[in-house]
Amino acid sequence: MDLKNTRNNNRRNPGCRGRRPDLAKLRRQEAVERLEAWQQLSVADQIEHLDARLGKGVGAKKQRARLAKKTS
What we know:
Shape: elongated
Oligomer: single chain
Radius of gyration: 19 Å
Distance between the termini: 55 Å
Number of strands: 0
Number of helices: 4
């Protein structure tokens, strides 16, 4: 594996300094899309999703507390 190529993979033009400037905008847009998809789920679906991803009652304490507060 050529390490030089993997290092320059994330650059817009190999040889210029810094990360690709368009990546920040792309990541911000993806984050907004993920948030919108998450907010469209009901509270019960959000809890189910957390359980499926992390395990039943494991992790995301603050988020689970926020969701529990919404249900009561």
